[in-house]
């Protein structure tokens, strides 16, 4: 059970989008080397404003490239890195993974899935109306979030486009992802 890394992205400055790279280096317990969101404690501005001492459960952000085709059908053109993700994947239903899932990336790196990205208004600043495509309520009134998942780095290593991703599920009972 697995998929593939299609793109990797990072940015050393606060910016909504992240440029694609040839590779990124994951640092155990920190995140993506040189990325503005790397660190032991939270780096996302809204989280820092709430409590700058809270643990950084959002070290590495993943988005499934299948989302891009989904929003394109609704008239929104999005490419890898443009929603601020570090790793774009294919072939994995990221949103259905349980908390604690380990993703083995390439030969070395391992991340632990912590939860769902909580999309913010910056998405509409990027493309007006896009936020409603990635967060909302389904027909039964349940909130859905489709803007990717967050993780922490348990084992560092280099990650490149084309690297395989192996999924290691945690022991049952599985806990569904919630926003982090």
From TrEMBL:
Entries under Gene3D superfamilies matching the protein: PK beta-barrel domain-like
Pfam families xref list: MOSC (PF03473)
GO MF, one example: catalytic activity
Protein name: MOSC domain-containing protein
Taxon lineage: Bacteria, Bacillati, Actinomycetota, Actinomycetes, Kitasatosporales
InterPro entries listed in its UniProt record: MoCF_Sase_C, MOSC_domain, Pyrv_Knase-like_insert_dom_sf
Domain MOSC: 19-168
């Amino acid at each position: 059970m697995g998929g593939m890394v299609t793109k990797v992205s990072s940015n050393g400055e606060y910016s909504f989008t992240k440029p694609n790279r040839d590779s990124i280096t994951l640092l155990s317990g920190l995140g993506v080397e040189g990325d503005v969101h790397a660190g032991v404690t939270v780096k996302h501005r809204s989280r820092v404003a709430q409590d700058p001492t809270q643990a950084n459960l959002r070290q590495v952000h993943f988005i499934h490239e299948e989302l891009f085709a989904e929003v394109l059908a609704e008239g929104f053109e999005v490419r890898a890195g443009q929603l601020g993700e570090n790793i774009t994947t294919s072939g994995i239903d990221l949103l259905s993974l349980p908390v604690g899932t380990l993703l083995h990336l390439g030969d070395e790196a391992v991340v632990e899935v912590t939860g769902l990205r909580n999309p913010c208004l910056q998405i509409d600043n990027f493309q007006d109306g896009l936020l409603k495509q990635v967060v909302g309520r389904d027909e039964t009134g349940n909130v859905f979030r489709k803007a990717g998942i967050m993780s922490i780095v348990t084992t560092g290593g280099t990650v490149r486009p084309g690297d395989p991703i192996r999924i290691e599920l945690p022991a049952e009972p599985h806990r569904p992802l919630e926003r982090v």
